[in-house]
Amino acid sequence: MLSLEGVHSHYGKSHILHGVSIRVERGEVVGLLGRNGVGKSTTLKTIMGLVRPSEGRITFEGRDITGQAPHRLARIGLGYVPEDRRIFRLLTVLENLRTGLDRPDVAEARRTELLEKVYASFPVLRERRNQAGGTLSGGEQQMLAIARAMMLEPKIVLLDEPTEGLMPRMVSQIREIINVLHRDGVAILLVEQNVPMTLEVCDRVYIMEKGTVRHHGPAAELRRNPAIVHQYLGV
Amino acid sequence: MIPIDQILIQAINGIVSGMILALVASGLTLIFGIMDVVNFAHGELFMLGAYMGVITLATTGNFWLALLLACLIIGLLGAALQVVALRPLLGRDPLTTILATFGISLVLQNYALWQFGPVARKIQEPFTGHFRLFHLDYPYYRIVIAVLSAAIIGGLYLFMKYGKYGIWIRATTQDRVMASAMGIPVPWVHTAVFAIGAAMAAASGVLFGPLVGVNHAMGLDLILRAFIVVVVGGMGNLGGSILAAIFISLLEAFASIWVSPAQAVIVSFVVLILTLLIRPTGLFVPTPK
Amino acid sequence: MTAPAGSAAAPARAGRGGAPILRTEGLTVRFGGLTALSNVDISVQPGEIRAIIGPNGAGKSTFFNCVTGVLRPTSGRIVFDGRDIAGLPPDQISRLGIARSYQITNILPGATVLENVRVAAQSRHHNWSLLRHHLAYTDVLDRAREVLASVGLVDKEDELAANLSHGEQRTLEIAIALATEPKLLCLDEPTAGMSVGETHATVELVRRIAANLTILIVEHDMEVVMGLGRTITVLHYGEVLAEGTPADIQANTRVQEVYLKT
């Protein structure tokens, strides 16, 4: 469904991605692991059109989406949850959700349905729905960032380090949410540094180093064979 | 001896001119807040709005219809200018947009001079009539200007807070990258905000028209004050710019009790300098956390 | 054999015991409620190549910023060459002999390669005279060319810095730092954004210049770290988690846990 072929990206002159090729099929949960600075976040940003690739191709459901504007991609089924959450701090929780909910092709009834569904998965958001986003705790902001992306009814969600800086209790909540999304048939491309959680929830895993994919295989294989993970993520 | 009657009269004058200034400045601060564009052509949009008012008034004979039409026309002009001249410059050095808007301002000024000539035009106020204020006959129209400006700004505030597209504008102002990632068509939001700012400047021009002559240079004096207001009120801060506009206009109005209006302008500059020295993010902005 | 206390010119000696060239005692940095560094004690010998590693948010940049005078520590001491430098401004620290390269390249894009290095070199010589032509300062130019030769950029000396490749620009940054004749060189993620080839070249360069210098290097690339660092310090949540040779660190299960988040 989503595929990257030989993608190169730069930040100014800094050549971050040196030919990345990745595939995510419909409904799959795919992990992207690697140390700091290897280009995991840049890969997601390039898919979402926040960074323009200098080389290579990105296709989604058969269409070439290389370098397209983010707002178009959000409309055709890509959801993005960035590394630092980036919720709209001065908008209320409900207004944050509405940025994704208020789409022209969505009937009022469906909108209420979607909102109820997300409140059911994240009761704390219902509680705080009229509070400004900036007053939420880190974990709550992460919930809001994911819920906001879900309002787009995406076919694939790009999740950038959702567990970073969260307490263990919240980490398991994130794991739960990923499972819920998976059950609903939403594909997920998960960038993480938390190896155990990633190996638990993902079907397949790519491991990146220095801007390229160095290893690719089923999560089960990596669970059986931790040495590979150690090589690329340990010291 | 404190001249109470003069102070009260000037207070009202200050509020009236403050509201006009607020109408212009809020468009300016909105534009800066959402797309980091310092719109040096804003005074010319005000001026062209006034000229449009002259023309539409002559055609329709109705002041209010003229006001509405002028806003629509200048709003569209603003949208066109943004799409043609400013959108291509997105992401470049801010100096390029400053130069671009400055260039547009020169073009528009000279266009107005060429099209309408150097003689000032007049817009007839929609109604004459005064009420007695101490020793003066104070025109109702001036009060109406203030009320109408407040209404327009109030309408903008409600739109931003409760309207669906208001959320789009606020989200884009806070984080245009994430707004885009949420499906909000950011380039069009920018165009719309520029158009709204232009329309507000035009409304200001038409409302202000009957008080002064409509001429090609009328934007110049105003734009300077408008920028001062935007800085003092906090760049991008809508509420702040309204408070700052009234504050500065009141101070100037009071000052002109004792000195000539030309010298009273110094007050604005003093406030600007003090703001930059003491509280550069804006006098009326809560302390940044 | 120790240099007398307070001496400003302790020569760099590789691998000897004795007075450390850089020492921190109880270095602590707090930003409001957040503790970025907590009681960090690090000791670097003259001539060492010391790598500082740690997962995200460990405090590596904060540590660098304290040593180079960009940040004032909340408490603790930083002793360089016998002198307490905590809280001194960056220009003074530069004059005392600490140089730094940055993650985001800080070169002058509109100047040539030679000019970039010359500007740095002349900070160590001469007061400026309004009347002398800049090309008359031949000793400064010679020094600049010397540095360019040592980093391998001398044949690009007339090239505009903006036209260099990314790897060459990072090398130029190192050259600029070297031109200030430092005793301690701080390299902040020098191989970020580089290809594998450029990374290897940078590692070679660092090895070459390490002969007369003490080097502190922050890196994420483990191959670089393990290849270069004779001693590695691991930071985690602002504290020193472990210190030792590459073999020690790789064998340290606590370090592995922290990196793999098990």
What is the CA–CA distance across the termini of chain B? Answer: 45 Å
Helix content class of chain B = over 70%
- Overall pLDDT of chain C: 85
Low-confidence stretches of chain C: 1-16
Please bin the fraction of helical residues of chain C. Answer: 25-40%
Approximately what portion of the residues of chain C adopt beta-strand conformation? 15-25%
Strand proportion of chain B: under 5%
List the secondary-structure elements of chain C in sequence, H or E: EEEHEEHEHHHEHEHEEHH
Q: How many distinct helices of chain C?
A: 9
Structural notes for this entry:
The complex is a heterotrimer of chains A (235), B (289) and C (262). Chain A has 235 residues and is of the alpha/beta class. Chain A has one domain: Rossmann fold, CATH 3.40.50. Chain A has 10 helices and 10 strands. The two termini of chain A are 35 Å apart. The model of chain A has no long low-confidence stretch (mean pLDDT 92). Chain B has a domain of 197 residues. Chain B starts with a helix and ends in an 11-residue tail after the last helix. Chain B is mainly α and 289 residues long. Chain B is globular, with a radius of gyration of 19 Å. In chain B, strands 1-2 form a two-stranded antiparallel sheet. Chain B is 75% helix and 3% strand. In chain B, a hairpin with a 2-residue loop joins strand 1 and strand 2. Chain B has 11 helices and 2 strands. Chain C is an alpha/beta fold. Chain C has 2 domains: 160 residues, Rossmann fold (3-Layer(aba) Sandwich); 75 residues, no CATH class. In chain C, helix 3 crosses helix 4, helix 3 packs parallel to helix 5 and helix 4 packs across helix 5. The radius of gyration of chain C is 19 Å and the shape is globular.
Core attributes:
heterotrimer; A: 235 residues; alpha/beta; Rossmann fold; six-stranded mixed β-sheet; four-stranded antiparallel β-sheet; 10 strands; C: 262 residues; 23% strand; globular; disordered N terminus
